[in-house]
Specification:
Elements lengths: L2 H8 L1 H10 L4 H41 L3 H5 L12 H14 L5 H7 L2 H6 L3 H6 L22 H19 L16 H16 L4 H4 L6 H10 L1
Helix pairs in contact: 2-3, 3-9, 3-10, 3-12
Amino acid sequence: MKYADFERVMSSPRMRRYSNACGGDTRKAMTLYRLNLKLSQENFTIISCFEVAIRNSIDNHYKNIYGNDWLRDAQMAGGIFSVNRCRITRQIIKSAYNKLGNRYTHNKLVAEMDFGFWRFLFAQPQFYAAGQSLLNVFPNKPISTPIIQYNQTYVFNRMGTINKFRNRIAHHEPICFQSGVAVIDSTYLRNNYMVIQDLFNWLDIDSSKLLFGLDHIQKLVGKLDLM
């Protein structure tokens, strides 16, 4: 496809950053755009797998403590999230539960919760309301040091980083540049990829086996670094 046609489809404002990063080389700009799409596609797949993994780990943890319907029960009177500081979390569960109505099953209710919901279970109010045990889902979590506390706040912030990365990809924003400038750079990609890999490891999940045939990030980042 000629660049003029490519630009017409993708829009001049969107392509300008790619063109500037490639010194006006339009063929290279199209190659970079396609590479960014491939990187976004694969990272989104990896994030989706992590989301399922962390969700299921949390679900199994609380099932063992509060029973097979723990999520439904959490929003009821006297439930673990019935305290005022957890009112938003409680409302999210309640709304989803009411939406399901007589179609309710625990698995369907779990599936209604998005990544942000599971992240906020590590926020201080939710973490304490549920018994301060949720870090047990990470059997390989490092031991805290005077410099770094690997506590629920650390996990909450790491998951926030992943969520922002996910949203950036979902909104079709580039992930192949230095922050705020039209310079090709893999630092942002590498940093977010390592956050996800670290948390997979904390969960005692071998991500190389889980993502076999799906994860080509290192190879693709290598191509980006050569541009």
